[in-house]
Structure of Hexosyltransferase:
Amino acid sequence: MRVRGWRGLGKVAAAAAVLVLGLQALFSALGPGHRPSQSRRAGAVPAEDYRILSPDTYRYLLNQPAACRTRSPFLVLLVPVAPGEKEARDGVRRTWGAADEERLTLFFVGLSEGGQPQRLLEEEARAHADIIQMDFQDTYQNLTIKTMMMMNWLAVHCPRASYAMKVDADIFVNVFLLVPHLRSSPRRGFITGSVITDGVPRRNRSSKWFVSTQQYPEDAFPWYVSGAGYVFSADLAARISWASTHVPMIPLEDVYVGLCLRVLGVRPAYSRSFIPFRNLFEVRHLQYDRCTFADLILVNRFKPSELVDIWQ
C-alpha cells in the first residue's frame, strides 16, 4: 500500500508510452472478452505520472527469468517481503512455499533501506533461485509498485501458469485445500479472497491508510480483496498491468488492484464454506486448531517460528 520513497526514475516518459501501446496491442489480440469495461474506462494516465508504476522505470537487480521456462505451474505464489526478512522467507520455504511439481514460490523485494547487505541477498538468491528484486525503495508506501511489479513479472515470465496467489509471508496458507478448490474455479477473469465491499478512504492524515481527495476524490472504494492474500487466474496479471495505465497511483495496493479490476469489469468472488458457513480467507489471527485450520485456506499473522510449528 504505498507510494513515496521510489527512485530510479531516470528513464524518459517515452518508455512508459511504449509500454502502454504494447499492452493495448496485447489486449486487442486477446479479443473483446479481455478488454476493460466501457462504462468504467478511465482516460489513460499521463506518461509522466504513470512512470512511477511502469516496469520500464526500474531495473532488475535479481531475476529468475527461467523459473517457468520448462514448466507451466498450476499455482504461482507471489510473496512480497522486505530484503532483510530472510527468516520469513525461510519459514515460507519450510511450509506452504516448499518446492512442488504444481506450485512455484517466488519472493519479491525492493532495495533495502539499510539493514541486510545486498551481498547476503545475492547469496540467498543463488542458493534458492526464488528471489526477484528491482531497484525501488522497499517501503510500506511502495507496495503498490511492488504489486504491479509482480503482475508484470507473471505476465512476462510465466504466461502459462493457471493461477497465482499474492500472499504475505506471515500468512498460513492451506495449499492442500486451496489447490483442489481452484480445480473447480474459473480459469479466466477470476479473483477471490476476503472481499471488502464497504471500503471508504481514510481522510485523517495521521492514519496509516490516509488517502487525499487529490489522490482519490470518490467517497467509497469499489469491491476489492484484502491484500493479506488473494488468488486469481493468471490471465488477470497482464490485464491488471494494462488497467494500471488507466488508474492513477494510490498508496493502497489492495484497493489499487480493486480499481484496476473495476476498469476491467471484473468483480472479486467470495470463497466460503457452507457447513459451517465461513469465509475461507480468514484475515484475522486465530489461535491454532487443527480442525479449524484444515477447513480454511488462509489465516493471518504468524511469526516464522509459529508457522513452522503449525505446519508440523
About this structure: Residues 13-30 form the longest helix (18 residues). Confidence is low (pLDDT under 50) at residues 1-41.
